[in-house]
Amino acid sequence: MSEGATVSESAFIEVDRVEKVFDVRRRTGFLRRELRRVRAVDSISFTVARGEMVGYIGPNGAGKSTTIKMLTGILTPSGGRLRVAGIDPSRERTRLAHRIGVVFGQRTTLWWDLPLIDSYRLMHRMYRIPDGRYRENLDRLVELLDLSALLEVPVRQLSLGQRMRGDIAAALLHDPEVLYLDEPTIGLDVVSKGRVREFLRELNTERGTTVLLTTHDLQDIEQLCSRVMVIDHGRLVYDGALAGLHEAGESERTLVVDLARELPPVDVGEAARVVKVDGPRQWLAFPAAASAAPLVARIAAEYPLVDLSVREPDIEAVIAKMLYSTGDAPQVPSDREASRETVVPAPGNS
Hints:
350 residues, alpha/beta, Rossmann fold, 2 domains, 4-stranded antiparallel beta sheet, nucleotide-binding, ABC_transporter-like_ATP-bd
């Protein structure tokens, strides 16, 4: 759906020309201040259907967290219309809280000094979850997220990855219809990331939970989402399939190969290009939308391959390439920045 599209009445999440403006005061000299009005979200529109799993990505400061905070009722929009399950988040925040779950990356919803299980017991009472449903959900979440050894451990003693799994479980104890996830795999090792991704797939498939996922790990998006939305400078600049994003941004993945000895640059034709050689190690760039398997098989067959790894493209780089390829990249001075930030003399300035 394009940024200016009409919001569908049947959508589960509706965002119609929503904006958020913050007033920021800055000192510009002795007894002088300026009031800057910053548009964190600039007239964005989209809909999300019930049961859809959507990636919501963009560079730091693009407006992702601000959007989610408006969808949860934490922030009130400066303009436009928001509905989640037919509810206005800012007007009926308490009612909405029983239908949504939220995991805010580095900020925990757990009680810092209490054992993990005590946080869950408190949520049992806060959300008034029926006893049978609470026990069933807790047992299932503990098993799937591997939390059994952590239940009696105070939250402050958990690693970031352990706490993240604990937060995901806490967000799902009351069977929310919508789950907002901000960097759900941050701090997790490869095995734990796989478990969390598989869990989220099952949650979406079996229970039809609607998921809005923000992340800087493109593998999260590739493995979980069929649709991705990109926000940049507060504006929705892309809404579609991930393959289309890679195509628009001409993004590339990097295959790092370690050979048994130093050799001339690897020749695999048009499948990839060598961008760097350092002794027996070589870096090859290939289209992000392409599979690495044929490329790896060809190198293994023709060269003395010892080891390899694949590096995903950086989201900021993908977005930057996409903006330049479509002619939307900001110029200097930036018209887009000017549209986001308005300077107003602060009261009391001489």
